[in-house]
């Protein structure tokens, strides 16, 4: 089942790629898609939402469940 989190601070395509890369590095994530206009990111896989938020925060963006 997909997991979607809120991500604030993305302003360009490079930002989306950075968030996607950070999320793909989380154990259990199979795919990640970030959308700056929707201020969200969606991942597929068996993951803990808290780990997703932490990964995005560590990448320099503001995330919440």
From TrEMBL:
SUPFAM superfamilies assigned to the protein according to its UniProt record, in alphabetical order: HMA, heavy metal-associated domain (SSF55008)
GO MF annotation, one: metal ion binding
UniProt xrefs under InterPro entries: HMA_dom (IPR006121), HMA_dom_sf (IPR036163)
The protein, known as: Heavy metal transport/detoxification protein
Domain called HMA: residue spans: 1-64
Origin superkingdom: Archaea
């Amino acid at each position: 089942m997909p997991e979607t989190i809120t991500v604030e601070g993305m302003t360009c395509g490079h930002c989306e790629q950075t968030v996607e890369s950070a999320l793909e590095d989380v154990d259990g994530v199979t795919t990640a898609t970030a959308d700056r206009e929707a201020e969200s990111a969606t991942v597929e896989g068996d993951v803990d939402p808290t780990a997703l938020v932490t990964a995005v925060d560590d990448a320099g963006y503001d995330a919440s469940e």
